[in-house]
Write a structure and sequence with these properties.
The protein is mainly beta. It has strands spanning 5-11, 21-29, 33-42, 48-52, 57-61, 67-70. The strands form 2 sheets. It has a 3-stranded antiparallel β-sheet, with no helix packed on it. A 3-stranded antiparallel β-sheet has the order 4-5-6, with no helix packed on it.
Length: 77
């Protein structure tokens, strides 16, 4: 995308009472601005975010093998 597409991941360091981590991901185009913003309750604290340009998916990774995949429309798979 050549610097035209950005993702922002924000999360709360404090877990919920159910031991979940509240996170928000936003997809932003440089030319058009905010495409979408979605909130999630994750089972782990994210430490890495990976973008797959061929599918438009994001992988949110935690420690060890913990991960969640977000599709190109912001839906958690």
């Amino acid at each position: 995308m050549g610097g035209q597409l950005y993702f922002v991941l924000l999360f709360n360091e404090a877990e919920t009472k159910d031991k979940k981590v509240a996170a928000t991901v936003a997809k932003i185009y440089r030319s058009d601005g905010l495409a979408w913003s979605s909130k999630y309750l994750l089972d782990f604290r994210p430490i890495e975010i990976l973008f797959k340009p061929e599918t438009g998916e994001l992988t949110l990774r935690g420690s060890d093998t913990q991960q969640s995949v977000v599709d190109k429309n912001g839906k958690l798979k």
